[in-house]
Automatic annotation (TrEMBL):
Residues of the CoA-binding domain: 2-105
SMART domains reported in the protein's UniProt record: CoA_binding
Name of the protein described by the UniProt record: CoA-binding domain-containing protein
SUPFAM superfamilies xref list: NAD(P)-binding Rossmann-fold domains (SSF51735)
Pfam families: CoA_binding_2
Length: 144
């Protein structure tokens, strides 16, 4: 399950360029009134929302009482892998509940890593080339 009541989200690879998928996906969350933070190493904010340079920096800003987050991934596979590797190295793996790899953002190495090393349930990892812009609406309706 990717969506859950009260869950916060991050868009790994959020872009300031409105023509890029990282921006479109961030706006999808904003338009659906879901609590989301953009992850972008070179922007202070994206679409008026405070951005974080790394996924781990966002996780470190969460309060202890916050539930684990959902992550939409739009970065290339190697960047995705490095971001998740940092999360594990900083001992924050338990703060990720679900991951939606957008088309082009994953390979078998990173998917295996998040399931086996981060401990994200296989049922909570979407890695079938399904895009949130196409399938997110139905999934959101079904899960929340």
């Amino acid at each position: 399950m990717f969506f859950a009541p009260g869950r916060k989200y991050a868009v790994l690879g959020a872009s300031t360029n409105r023509g890029k998928f990282g921006n479109k996906i961030l706006r999808w969350y904003i338009n659906h009134k879901l609590p989301v933070k953009p992850i972008n190493p070179s922007a202070e904010e994206v679409e008026g929302v405070k951005a974080y340079p790394t996924l781990n920096k966002y996780i470190e800003d969460l309060s202890i009482s916050d539930e684990p987050i959902g992550v939409s991934v739009v970065t290339p596979p190697q960047v995705s892998f490095e971001m998740f590797k940092e999360v594990l190295e900083k001992r924050n793996a338990d703060k990720i509940a679900s991951i939606w790899f957008q088309p082009g953002s994953f390979d078998s190495k990173v998917v295996k890593y998040v399931i086996e090393k981060l401990g994200v349930s296989k049922d909570s990892v979407i890695s079938n080339n399904d895009c949130i812009l196409v399938s997110g609406e139905g999934k959101l309706r079904d899960e929340i």
